[in-house]
């Protein structure tokens, strides 16, 4: 395990004007991993990326690269390159010269530069574009040039700060697939920052969910979605029904006025908890067959499913189903024990 770790953040903290941006961050990043820092604006994800890149210094803690402390190593000496949302291409240079810029600074031989740039143009699907002006390119093509310019320097780690944010939805989805393919082809570590949950789920090997400068959960996309550690993660990753509950004992919880079997244990008897249930895990059944019941207040067709808002038992349930119950119909609701997620309530000061 230790041999596969390329970067490690140990007890990293950072504040701006006495406002904490990062609070005691501990994180390790494996070689060849696609890891995404995910969270809302102001959660600390970009600050984390800038500290890794050498653009910010931590107030405390250690940043280790292959086991060596690099806190004092300037950005240009680190084995990382960064792609920003604003691509920062040089408008007076063509595509080839933009990509070759870093190699020319290193005074590499011209034939080596040409070979490396041509290989990058092929990788980012821009063969034959070398002589083009960057101003003549679409947003997606400019983004590919920015990625090629970073990758041509053969960094061991590529940092990507919301690089798809300026693209339209269709192009963004296409680029998500292309970026993942590039990372797998090159076999280098990608550290990606986004606030887009779908983007993180579709691209990442590992997701780090952040909020208020703290890490909330680290896991695979499947773990993060199916087994969120707290109500914030459950609410931020996809949509959820979150209810107040009481843990009666192991494997039994009360919510919405009903005692319901679950698969969770290890809570105190009568402990107040958050109960999290995904909309797709609530099954609409005939009224007499449900453990709960309610009235359908609205139905919205979402393409692959219907979204129904069902009011009952002191809660308005969001339900996703391929089967539709008409508005004002009274229905039953069933939830399997393993689709009920019990979480400790966050203690607030």
Spell out the blueprint of helices and strands.
Elements: E1 5-16, E2 19-30, E3 34-38, H1 45-53, E4 60-65, E5 68-69, E6 80-84, H2 95-105, H3 110-123, H4 139-151, E7 157-161, H5 169-186, E8 189-194, H6 197-203, E9 206-211, E10 214-219, H7 221-226, H8 231-236, E11 241-249, E12 252-255, E13 258-261, E14 271-277, E15 283-285, E16 292-301, E17 306-312, E18 315-321, E19 330-334, E20 341-344
Parallel strand pairs: 3-8, 3-9, 6-7, 7-8
Antiparallel strand pairs: 1-2, 1-4, 4-5, 9-10, 11-12, 11-14, 12-13, 14-20, 15-19, 16-17, 16-19, 17-18
Helix pairs in contact: 2-3, 2-4, 3-4
Keywords summarizing the entry:
single chain; alpha+beta; Rossmann fold; OB fold (Dihydrolipoamide Acetyltransferase, E2P); 2 domains; 6-stranded mixed beta sheet; 20 strands
Question: What would a concise description of this structure say?
Answer:
It contains 8 helices and 20 strands. By secondary structure, the protein is of the alpha+beta class.
Task: Describe what you observe in this structure.
The protein has helices at residues 45-53, 95-105, 110-123, 139-151, 169-186, 197-203, 221-226, 231-236; strands spanning 5-16, 19-30, 34-38, 60-65, 68-69, 80-84, 157-161, 189-194, 206-211, 214-219, 241-249, 252-255, 258-261, 271-277, 283-285, 292-301, 306-312, 315-321, 330-334, 341-344. It is of the alpha+beta class and 349 residues long. The strands form four sheets. The chain has a six-stranded mixed beta sheet with strand order 6-7-8-3-9-10, with helices on both faces. Strand 17 (306-312) and strand 18 form a beta hairpin. The radius of gyration is 24 Å and the shape is elongated.
């Amino acid at each position: 395990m230790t041999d596969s770790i390329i970067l490690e953040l140990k007890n990293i903290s950072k504040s701006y004007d006495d406002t904490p941006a990062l609070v005691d961050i501990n994180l390790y990043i494996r070689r060849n991993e696609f890891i995404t820092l995910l969270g809302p604006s102001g959660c600390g994800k970009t600050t984390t990326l800038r500290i890794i890149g050498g653009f910010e210094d931590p107030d405390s803690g250690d940043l280790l690269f292959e086991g060596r402390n690099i806190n004092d190593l300037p950005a240009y000496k680190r084995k990382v390159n960064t792609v920003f949302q604003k691509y920062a291409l040089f408008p007076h240079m063509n595509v080839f010269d933009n990509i070759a810029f870093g190699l020319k600074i290193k005074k590499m031989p011209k034939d080596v530069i040409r070979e490396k740039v041509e290989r990058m143009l092929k990788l980012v699907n821009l063969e034959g574009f070398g002589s083009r002006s960057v101003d003549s390119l679409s947003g997606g093509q400019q983004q590919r040039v920015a990625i090629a310019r970073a990758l041509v320097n053969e960094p061991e780690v590529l940092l990507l700060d919301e690089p798809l944010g300026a693209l339209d939805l269709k192009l963004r989805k296409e680029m998500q697939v292309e970026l993942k393919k590039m990372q797998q082809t090159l076999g280098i570590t990608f550290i990606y920052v986004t606030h887009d949950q779908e983007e993180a789920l579709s691209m990442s090997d590992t997701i780090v969910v952040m909020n208020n400068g703290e890490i909330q959960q680290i896991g695979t996309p499947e773990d993060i979605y199916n087994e969120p550690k707290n109500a914030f993660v459950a609410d931020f990753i996809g949509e959820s029904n979150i209810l107040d509950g009481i843990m009666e004992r192991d494997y039994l919880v009360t919510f919405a006025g009903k005692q319901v079997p679950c698969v969770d244990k290890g809570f105190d008897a009568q402990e107040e908890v958050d109960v999290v249930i995904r909309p797709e895990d609530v099954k609409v059944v005939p009224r007499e067959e449900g453990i709960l019941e309610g009235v359908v207040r609205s139905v919205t067709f979402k393409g692959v499913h219907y979204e129904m808002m069902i009011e009952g038992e002191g809660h308005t349930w969001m339900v996703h189903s391929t089967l539709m119950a008409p508005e004002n119909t009274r229905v039953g609701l069933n939830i399997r024990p393993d689709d009920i997620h019990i979480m400790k309530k966050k203690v607030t000061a």
